Description:
The structure is a homodimer. Chain A is built from four helices and eight strands; from the N terminus they run ββααααββββββ.
Amino acid sequence: xxxxxxxxxxxxxxxxxxxSQTHDVNETDLxxxxxxxxxxxxxxxxxxxxxxxxxxxRIAHGMFTGxxxxxxxxxxxxxxxxxxxxxxxxxxxxxxVGDTLxxxxxxxxxxxxxxxxxxxxxxxQQGKAVVDGEALVLAPDRSQAITMPALxxxxxxx
Amino acid sequence: xxxxxxxxxxxxxxxxxxxSQTHDVNETDLxxxxxxxxxxxxxxxxxxxxxxxxxxxRIAHGMFTGxxxxxxxxxxxxxxxxxxxxxxxxxxxxxxVGDTLxxxxxxxxxxxxxxxxxxxxxxxQQGKAVVDGEALVLAPDRSQAITMPALxxxxxxx
Lengths: 158, 158
């Protein structure tokens, strides 16, 4: 099912403007991120191995949280039409299956040529930062409603 | 099918040490990265829309290339047992279906407490950088062979 998302033009963005998005981390996230990235480390996929690791149980790939940040930027603030210029990510705490993550975006600075600096922070259900960082984004020229295609659906084989 | 990967201990890492990994970007990468991240922007999924964009055709999610970098770090240099501390990514050029990407890693500096600074660059088949950046990684205490679980396989539904 297609949906509608709203892009926010550079001129309509304000310093201090925020957006957020939550995600419940599940089993499929770990498996699908392994599949798409090619990172099949046992700390993400093998419960028995992970029990012997420093984290005591399986953890999500750090860059999975990066993917959630990039999606929040691309879908919400500034939304469709944004061009990603750079992203800094500090991985502060592990993310585990069952965690609820909240991606928090905040416009820090408007720069020349439609560039916007955005704080990108992700908190877990305890309100603790799992990732903190900053993005530099080229904001769209105009605010508009964009039809977003249905998300492709994948099923685990076998 | 499980495979074996080799982790490289902090003590065995040298400044200037390199590793690389290639990946052919395909249709499924774009769709699966949309599914796992939740970013269903039409510039990644809708050919007709993308033809009207600045890129003229569909592009891969920027953070997909980030995912390939994280996999190369976690599987090759320093490999399994590494802990991701931070990653900076500069997105230089778009990535399209059919591109062949080469992730190039190079140890830049060994720091205190097992921390290693790694240059993370990704080139396309024209030898042009699509992403350039740096990672900070906690290297493993010891070099060892690790059994890597089979990569989960997903199929597109419908």
